[in-house]
Specification:
By secondary structure, the chain is mostly helical. The protein contains 2 helices and no strands. The longest helix is centred in the middle third of the chain and has 39 residues, at 14-52. It starts with 13 loop residues before the first helix and ends in a 21-residue tail after the last helix.
């Protein structure tokens, strides 16, 4: 197959597509685990609110970091980002205190 200039067209990157597929499957499982971690965090925060009168600041920071990470995973899964999420890159930075 040639392009309009007569030179051979680049072959599809099937190897990178296969690699991307493996990463997609991996991060789909990671996202499933994140959903359970968010549910557990919400339940524990509710218990803190009921029994201690206020949510845990540590769990709030954890939840905020988890939300940023989930955003990175969703961006990768939906092809909005080519950057691999943690553990292939750094954990998402928190801009300030929650």
């Amino acid at each position: 197959m040639t392009d309009t200039t007569g030179s051979p067209a680049a072959a599809p990157a099937s190897e990178s597509l296969a690699t991307r597929l493996l990463y997609l499957l991996l991060f789909a499982v990671v996202f499933w685990v994140i959903c359970w971690a968010v549910a557990l965090t919400a339940i524990v925060q509710l218990a803190f609110r009921v029994f201690a009168g206020a949510p845990s600041p540590e769990l709030s920071r954890f939840g905020a970091g988890l939300a940023r990470y989930a955003g990175q995973v969703v961006a990768y899964l939906s092809f909005a980002s080519q950057r691999l999420p943690f553990p292939f890159s750094d954990w998402p930075e928190m801009p300030g205190r929650v």
